[in-house]
Amino acid sequence: MRAPLAWSVAGLLAAVALPWYALQEGLDSGAWLSGLWSSEDYASGLAQSIAHGKWWLAPVLASLAACLAVALLPLERERQGTLLLLASGLGLLLFVAQALGIGLRGWTTEWLNALLGELDARQVGIGAGGALVLIALLSLLSIALALRGGFGGDAFVAGAVTTVAASIVLFTAWPILRILLQAFQDGDGAFMPALLIDRLAAEKIWSLRCLTGGGRCGVAWNTLFLALACGAGTTALGLAFALIATRTCFAYKKTLRVLTVLPIITPPFVIGLALILVFGRSGLVNQFLEWSMGVQSTRWIYGFQGVFLAQLFAFTPVAFLVLIGVVEGVSPTLEEASQTLRADRWATFSTVSLPLMRPGLANAFLVGFIESIADFGNPIVLGGDYGVLSTEIYFAVVGAQLDYGRAAALALLLLTFALGAFFLQRRIVGTRSYATISGKGDSGLPTPLPDRARRAAQWIALPWAGFTLLLYGFAFVGGLVKVWGRDYTPTLDHYAKAFAIEHTADGLIWSGAAWNSFWTTVKLAAIAAPLTAALGLLAAWLLVRQRFAGRATLEFATMLSFAVPGTVIGVAYVFAFNVPPIEITGTAMIIVLCFIFRNMPVGVRAGMAAMSQIDRSLDEASLTLRGRAPQTLVYVVLPLLRPAIVGALVYGFVRAVTTVSAVVFLVTAEYELATTYIILRVINGDYGLAIAYSCALIVLMLAVILVIQFLVGERRLGRRAPQIQGGRA
Amino acid sequence: MSVEFRDVVKRYGTATAVAGVSFIVEAGTLVTLLGPSGCGKTTTLRMIAGLVLPSEGRILIAGRDVTNLSATQRDVSMVFQSYALFPHMSVLENVCYGLRRSGQRKAEAADRAREGLKQVGLAGFEERQPSELSGGQQQRVAVARALVLKPSVLLFDEPLSNLDARLRRQMREEIRELQQRLGLTVVYVTHDQQEAMAVSDRIIVMNAGRIEQQGGPRDLYERPATPFLARFMGESNPARGSIRRLAPDKVSVRLGEAEIEIADTATADGEATVAVRPEAITVEPAPGPAGTLPGKIAKASYLGTHMEYSINTAAGTLFATCPRVERPLAAGAAVAVSLAPRGVIIVRQ
C-alpha cells in the first residue's frame, strides 16, 4: 500500500516544513525558511500548534499521523480502508471546523463565544502548509473509500471525484452560500433576518410606476421585461436563421455560420459600442438627421431600446446555435410520412415540423432569457437610466453606496431569476423533448421550407445579418478615425496610444496604455484555460463513465453553476474570499479561480457530449487489459477526445479574455484586465481607444484559436464528430 | 484458474440485477452463462471482470478473494460484444496495449503480440487499422488482444452477436478449439442456446437475476428442471398429462388418447405438466394405431430440411418438426400423432 503511505508522509512534511498560514509576500521570497519555528507569521502547522498557541491544529495533525500509522500496519485491505477512512474523515472534520470556527477575531460566531468563552487568538487565511494538509487528507479519504470497494475499487477515480466535488464546493457552492448569509447581515456582520425583507421589498426594486405613467419601474421589473423581450426576439430571429441555413438552398449558408463565431470571440459590449457609433448622440444617424432636417440630436439610444437592440444582436447567434440543432433534429422521415398522408408542404410544416420544434424553441427562449439577465456589459454601456439588477449590484459594491448587504440581496434576486429560468428549462427540455436524433442512420431528405415561411424567414433574417456585419464594420472603422462624430480623419493614434512600444536607451519600453492590462489578461487566461479544460473534461469523464454514489448530485451541481450569472459569482467571490479561511481577494489567484469555475461547466457539457459518442466498452477493454484508470484516460479516452479538448481550451481562453460581469469586482490596480479597462474607457467616453483595444483582442483570440488547433493537432473544431465505436470507426 | 461466486447480489438503486448467485467454474473448462436479455448474465460476467463490483457476497478467482478489486487488479481479460478495438491504434498496437500497460518493453510486447496474432490466424495484418478489417477479423484481433496477456480467466461477452450466421458457427468452433488447445478457463455469455450447447462444458442458465439450473448441455436439454428451462432450451409444447407409476423407475404418461412409458423415479401419480419436444412428434395420416393421438393439421410449412406442422389435438395445439419432406401433409388433413419417449419430459413446478 504505497499510496496511503506517500500521502500521509507528504501531508506531515507540509505540516512541518511549510508555513501553515498565508504569507503577505508569497512563498517565493524565501524569508519564511528561517522563521518556520520561531515566527508566528511563518511558523509551520506543528510549530503553530505547539509554540504559538494554535492548539486546535494539533488534533488535525494527530489524525494525519494516525493515517501514517494505519498505512504502515500490515492489515487486510478492507480493514485498512475502514481505519484510514476513520482517521482521515476525522482529520477533515476537525480541519473544516477549526477553519470555519476561528477567524481574524477569535471565534467567528456569537454562539461559539457564548459556549466556549472568548478566544484570545486569531488566525488568518490558510497558506501552503494548511492547503497541502487539506489535500493530503482528501486524498487519504478517497484512497480509503476505494480500498473499501467504493468507486469501483479504483483510487484514481475516487481521488478524481473528491477533487472535482471538493473544488466545486469550495469555489462555487461556498461563495454562493456566502451571498445568502451576507444578505441577512447588517454592516457589522450581525444576523438580522428582517433586513433581507427590507432590502428585497425596496421600492427601487419593485416599483411599477412606469406602467401607470410618471416615474421609473423597479430594477427587478426592468430586468424581467428586458429578458422576456430578449428571449422572444432572439428566438424568432434564431429560428429564421436556422430555417434558412437548413431548409432552403440559400447560397451563403456558410457565411451565416461565421456570424455565430463572431459573438463568441467578441467582448460582450462591442455591439453596444457600435450601436453608440451609429445611433448615439454624435452617431451617424443623428448627424444625418441634423444635417438633412435640422433635428436636434438626442440620447434616445440610451435606455431599454438600446440595451434590447444590443442584446438582440449579441445573443441571436446563440439562439441560432441552439435552434439549428433542433431544426436538424426533426426527423425527415416524419415529414415524409406526413406528405404521404396527403399533407402539403405548408400543412406538414405547421402541423408536424413546428410542433416537433416546440421544446427546442422553449429552450432557445430560456437561453436568451438567461443570457439577458446575466448580461452586464451592454446595460452598463447603453442602459443610461434604465437600471437592471446586474448593473445595480455593481453600483452597490463599487459605487459610493458601498452597501454589501443590498448587493447581496440583489444578487440573491438575480440568482433566483436565473435558477427559476434554469429549472423551467430543464423541466421543459427534460420532459417534452422529442429526441428525434437516433443513433441509426435516418434516410430521407429534409423537406424544403414552404414558400410562405421561406419568404418570411428571409425577409427577417437577411437584413438582420447584413446589419450585424455592418455594426461590426463600424466598430472596426471606429478605431481608425480621430474623433467619431466630429473628425473622421483616418488615424492610427488610438492603436498607438494603446499599444505603443518605445525604443529608448534602456531598451524597449512598453509605454502603451493598454499593455499592462493586456499582458495580465493573456497571462491569467493562459493559466486558467488548461486548468478549466482539464477540470471540465475530468468531471465529464467521471459523469459519463463512472458510477458512484452522488453522481447525479455532482452533475446537477456543475450544471447549476452554469446558470449562475457572472455578476452573482463576482460578488460572491468578494464576500467569500476576503476573510479567512480562504483569503485571496486582490490576488491574481482569485481571478484565475473565477475564470476556471465560471467556464468549467461548458467544458463539462462539451466533454460529456463528446464522450457519450465514444463506445463505453473501449474504456472497459482498456481496464481489463491492465490499463489503470489514469492510463485509460491518457491512452484511450484523450486521443479520441481531441476535438473536445480543442473546444474546451479555446472556450476556456476566449471566455476568460472576454468576460466582464464576474471579474469586474475582482480586478485591482495591480491585476487589471482588458475588458474592465475597456469598460472604464467607454464610461469615460474614450471610444476610440476602447474600440482599438477590442479589435486587438479579437485578433488575439483568433490567433490563439489557430495556435491551439495547431498544437493539439486535429482540425475538427465545430464539426460534429462521427460516432466512434470500437473497431468500426 | 477457477472462479467462484458466493451468494453474490448486485443492486442498482432499487432494481436488483443479480439476486443471490453462487457457482464454481472449474479451471480449464468453458462455462456459459445463458439466459434471456435482462436476466443478469452480463452483469455477472462484468462482476468477474471487475467492471462492476457486487453489492453483497464474495467473488474468488483462483482461490483469492477479489471482491473489491478493480478490473485492472484482477488477472482476467475480456472480449467485448462490440470488440472494443481502439480505433486510433493499428492492429499490432491494439494487441500490444495490455502488454505495454503490464510494463513490458516495446520490442518484447510486439514479439508476443505477433505470436498472438499468428495464433488466431492473422499474421500479416499487424499494420492494418481496425476499420480495415472484416467483422470476423476484428473478432480475432479482440481474442488475440485478450489472449496474449495469458489471463487466468478469459471472458467473452456475446462475442458472436455481430457476425452473420455462417461466420458465427466457424468462430465458435475456433474459440472452442483454442480453449481446449491452450487449456483456458473461459466464461462465456450468450442468449443463443444452440451456441451455448455447441461450445460449453457446462451451462449456467439464468432467469430474472437467479440461476435457474446448471449442468452439461445434455443434462439441461433432456432433463430441464423447470418449465422456463423446458421452453428456453430448445422448443417444447407444454401440455397437461396424467401420470401412472408402472415400476420404481418407470411411469406411464397419458396425453389425450396417447400413452407413452418413460423413465422416471420421482413423480407421484396424478396430473402433471409435461413438455413435448417438437422433434419427438411423429405425424402419420389418420387413422393410426391404438395409443396415438388423433388430430388435424392447422398449418404446414416447408423449410427445406424439414416440415413444420401445427396440429390441433385433444391435448392442445402441438408444434411438430418432421424430417420427412418428400410426403408433406396439407393443412386440414386428419392425422395420427405418436410421441417418442425421449422427447416427453415431466416438468416439476
Automatic annotation (TrEMBL), chain A:
The keyword Cell inner membrane appears for this protein: no
Gene Ontology, cellular component aspect: plasma membrane
Species for this entry: Reyranella soli
Protein name: Iron ABC transporter permease
Keywords: Cell membrane, Membrane, Transmembrane, Transmembrane helix, Transport
Main location: membrane
Top-level taxonomy: Bacteria, Pseudomonadati, Pseudomonadota, Alphaproteobacteria, Hyphomicrobiales
UniProt family annotation: Belongs to the binding-protein-dependent transport system permease family.
Bilayer topology annotation: Multi-pass membrane protein
Superkingdom of origin: Bacteria
TrEMBL record, chain B:
Name of the gene encoding the protein in the UniProt record: fbpC1
Classification via InterPro entries: AAA+_ATPase, ABC_SmlMolc_Importer, ABC_transporter-like_ATP-bd, ABC_transporter-like_CS, Mo/tungstate-bd_C_term_dom, P-loop_NTPase, Transp-assoc_OB_typ2
Protein family (similarity comment): Belongs to the ABC transporter superfamily.
Keyword check for ATP-binding: yes
Biological process terms in GO annotation: quaternary ammonium group transport
Chain ranges of the ABC transporter domain: 3-233
Transmembrane segments: none
Keyword Cell inner membrane annotated: no
Highest taxon of the lineage: Bacteria
Gene3D superfamilies: 2.40.50.100, P-loop containing nucleotide triphosphate hydrolases
Any Pfam family hit: TOBE_2
A Gene Ontology molecular function term of the record: ATP binding
Keywords: ATP-binding, Nucleotide-binding, Transport
Full protein name: Fe(3+) ions import ATP-binding protein FbpC 1
PROSITE patterns per UniProt: ABC_TRANSPORTER_1 (PS00211), ABC_TRANSPORTER_2 (PS50893)
GO cellular component entries: ATP-binding cassette (ABC) transporter complex
